[in-house]
Design goal:
Blueprint: E1 3-8, H1 15-25, H2 30-54, H3 61-78, H4 82-98, H5 109-116, H6 125-142, H7 146-153, H8 175-189, E2 197-202, E3 208-212, E4 217-218
Parallel strand pairs: 1-2
Antiparallel strand pairs: 1-3, 3-4
Helix pairs in contact: 2-3, 2-8, 3-6, 3-7, 4-6
């Protein structure tokens, strides 16, 4: 199976789209924040979906969304990108302080989203957006062991003592392809089987997803 990761660009969006992201991220350094979240972090989140499919993980749906966020955090942590993860955490905390929490007082976060998963409610931008940002925050706070996350993804590998050389990223849309190549190289060194995946940069910044190119099935963002 071949997979594609599609990542939209803030600078290519319409004025209306850019305004929506400025409202989300704030006006200060919005380009950097957008690129760090979507073109550095989220592209690896999306790759996590591809790996789950490739390794036939039995974790699907809502729980897979949590899983691939945990993967993205744990693999970047393993690679030594603490400063970028700290910057990401600050961005997520600021976003969550700006947007409305849709979870009723009578329900826990997980219970609420389990109830609405697969319904029309989860398709509402504000409701799904809160779920995704809160899930990333949870993954950043918990910082799980990579080997534990691998197991849930269907990757049965003992982690050997391999450390890549940290390199400074110039965060931009091009980081999406560069970041994926670096993580793929690290996973190769760890002996993890990987599917062929292409990153496609698109103009619409609201498009952030992965799909099986053979079946053209899109995954959750």
């Amino acid at each position: 199976m071949r997979y594609g990761i599609y990542s939209g660009q803030f600078e290519k969006g319409t004025q209306e789209q850019q305004a929506a992201f400025i409202q989300l991220f704030g006006s200060e350094n919005v380009q950097y924040q957008f690129d760090l979240y979507f073109h550095w972090y989220n592209v690896i989140h999306e790759y996590g979906h591809c790996l789950c499919m490739h390794h036939h993980s039995d974790i699907t749906g809502l729980k897979q969304e949590f899983l691939v966020n945990r993967f993205a955090v744990s693999i970047w942590q393993y690679a030594g990108y603490e400063d970028e993860l700290k910057n990401l955490q600050k961005i997520i905390e600021e976003i969550l302080s700006r947007i409305k929490n849709p979870v009723p007082d009578t329900l826990s976060f997980m219970d609420y989203y389990e109830q609405i998963w697969g319904t029309d409610d989860i398709m509402e931008v504000a409701i799904y957006g809160y779920f995704q940002f809160k899930s990333v925050q949870m993954a950043l706070e918990n910082r799980e062991n990579l080997e534990t996350v691998f197991e849930e993804m269907g990757i049965h590998k003992k982690i050997s003592n391999i450390r890549p050389i940290y390199k400074q990223y110039s965060i931009s849309a091009d980081t999406a392809k560069e970041a994926l190549r670096d993580i793929q190289h690290l996973l190769d060194r760890l002996g993890v089987a990987q599917p062929p995946v292409d990153v496609q940069l698109v103009d619409d910044p609201s498009i952030q997803c992965a799909s099986c190119m053979d079946a053209m099935d899109s995954f959750e963002g």
